[in-house]
Amino acid sequence: MIRHTTPAVPRGTCYGFSDVDLARSFPQELTSVKRRLEINRDFTVYSSPLSRCARLAQLLAKNGLQYDDRLKEMNFGDWEMQMWDDLDSKEFAAWSADFFNKPAPNGESYRDLYERSISFLNDLRERKDSPVAVVAHSGVIRSMIIHVLGMPKENLYNFDITYAGISKLCFEDNRWRMVYCNL
Q1: What is the pLDDT of residues 138-158, one digit of tens each?
Q2: Nearest Cα to 7, choosing from 68, 80, 65?
Q3: DSSP letter at 70?
Q4: According to a count of CB atoms within 10 Å of the terminal CB, is the N or C end of the chain lower?
Q5: Is the dihedral of CA 144, 147, 151, 156 positive or negative?
Q6: What superfamily in CATH does domain 2-180 come from?
Q7: pLDDT in tens, 75-127
């Protein structure tokens, strides 16, 4: 699982479902991802269709590329492209108290994101196109990791998923296992 590279948005912007450009550091981050991947292998690549993932996926795919809407980041609805600090404090506090179950205004909850991410992971288990690279977003990758590790959902933000970070899962003996996170 590979997180997209650094986006070209001001720090502190809520940009989940929005399609945003990439920072000028993209070529260097691409080189870094390729160096850390087993690049001599032909991966089937699955990607979020949002351009910050799609651009990286297109340059990694040698053995096919498939886009899947389930790999999109969380839809923050009315908060998209707003500064987190500028959001209505009462509305944000209510959402923060139960973000896993409560949707953002006109958006989705983290539960929605989690369920679609795990649906993708379950479908991936049934496919025979190994090895696979998944280019996605932090929320999607976090969801898959806590699911595989059986972590409580409250631990979603207890670890960092860096831009261009690589995390590896393996499906062996009829179960998923975590190999490494954020290489």
Answers
A1: 999 999 999 999 999 888 888
A2: 80
A3: G
A4: C
A5: positive
A6: Phosphoglycerate mutase-like (3.40.50.1240)
A7: 999 999 999 999 999 999 999 999 999 999 999 999 999 999 999 999 998 88
